[in-house]
Design a protein that fits this description.
The protein is built from 17 helices and 9 strands. α3 crosses α5 and α12 packs across α13. The chain is globular, with a radius of gyration of 23 Å.
């Protein structure tokens, strides 16, 4: 079996359960281990889906196996899962694939923002029917969380710490009692076995809307780290860029690994404030320079090389993208970037082309 992509061609970004339907089907067919109630796969098979098996199942997450085992084990209990990390550490990606593997549905999603209303967590009303019929079951508009409770699925809440505190607290009863009262109808929705919640939160948002201690106790927290080594980060970027290139139907790029390694090296050195050989201290810019941004820079570089170049990604195709990611503040970040070019890029063997392209992009 191969990692077949069998999504509808007209869909720009298929859901995980569509994109990897063949892998999920194969895992389910071969999976003879016990499955928690409502789960489509056993916990072992879910971890295999996430990390790959080196043969037929592709890796969706590259990182410590133990972290994924803890995350999956949490969802098999009555505790919800909070994925915490700096931007670009694959929190959303992991939550989507966990929901796809466990429930076969990753679409029960609440996007947390400063304006997220209580209705997004609980339920709303179809006001035309409410005026015509009064408060009836037919007038209730179920939230993704309510639908997940009814079907025994995984609900996803993105950027939970951006949600106002009073709206966050609507989760308390849902997570502790596994019920959602509907007082207007004198009823409640009781969660079906298999229901659980995966929330994500950004380390950079600490202090915006901190979770109350009562709500935090209802989550097990798994911190997703930045990739530990250059090789690990290069592998992640190469894999995602190839996947995105197929999804966007970009022409095949023969070999972009040299530029991927260069982008990753620049990002890591500026992020850590130190060159890879440990000899030169550097200033760090205000931006995150996450792995996700490295993927974006490389995808743009591939599009440039494919449509306006000879099909080979070169330094000139990624230089402007790197500068755009580094220089978020036109004054302070520009100084950081210029110092990096003059003290590191200009002196490094094999980087002359990148230095010239980056200076031309100034």
């Amino acid at each position: 079996m191969t990692a077949t992509i069998d999504a509808t061609p007209t869909v720009l970004r298929p859901h995980a359960e569509q994109l990897y339907a063949a892998e999920l089907e194969a895992l389910a067919a071969a999976d003879d281990l016990p499955r928690p109630p409502g789960w489509r796969l056993s916990p072992q098979a879910v971890v295999t889906y996430l990390l790959g098996d080196g043969k037929d199942i592709s890796a969706k997450y590259i990182g410590p196996r133990r972290l994924m085992e803890v995350a999956v084990a949490t969802l098999a209990t009555d505790r919800a899962l909070l994925l915490l990390g700096v931007p670009g550490t694959a929190k959303t990606w992991v939550s989507e694939h966990l929901a796809a593997a466990i429930s076969g549905d990753s679409t029960l999603l609440v996007q947390g923002t400063a304006g997220t209303p209580e209705e997004a967590m609980r339920y709303g009303w179809n006001y035309a029917r409410l005026l015509a019929e009064g408060p009836t079951a037919g007038a209730v508009v179920a939230s993704p969380v309510m639908r997940a409770m009814r079907t025994g699925a995984i609900a996803r809440i993105e950027e939970l710490t951006r949600v106002p505190s009073d709206v966050q607290d609507t989760l308390l009863t849902i997570l502790s009692e596994k019920t959602l009262p509907v007082p207007e109808l004198g009823e409640e929705v009781q969660a079906v076995k298999g229901f659980n919640v995966i929330a994500t939160a950004n380390d950079r948002d600490r202090g915006v809307n901190e979770l109350s201690s009562a709500l935090r106790r209802r989550f097990n927290t798994v911190v997703l780290p930045v990739p530990g080594t250059v090789e690990e980060e290069v592998e992640i970027v190469a894999q995602r860029v190839a996947s995105l290139g197929r999804a966007l139907e970009l022409p095949e790029v023969p070999d972009a690994i040299t530029e991927i390694r260069r982008v990753v090296t620049v990002f890591r050195e500026l992020r850590e404030g130190l060159t890879a050989d440990g000899r030169t201290k550097l200033k760090s810019p205000s931006g995150t320079l996450s792995t996700a941004e490295a993927i974006s820079v490389m995808t743009s570089g591939m599009a440039l090389a494919s449509h306006f170049g000879d099909g080979t990604v070169r330094a000139a195709d990624v230089a402007a993208g790197i500068r755009g990611a580094v220089v978020r503040d036109s004054v302070s970040d520009a100084v950081v970037w210029r110092e990096y070019l003059e003290t590191v890029a200009r002196e490094r063997d094999g980087w002359k082309d990148f230095y010239r392209a980056a200076r031309d992009a100034e």
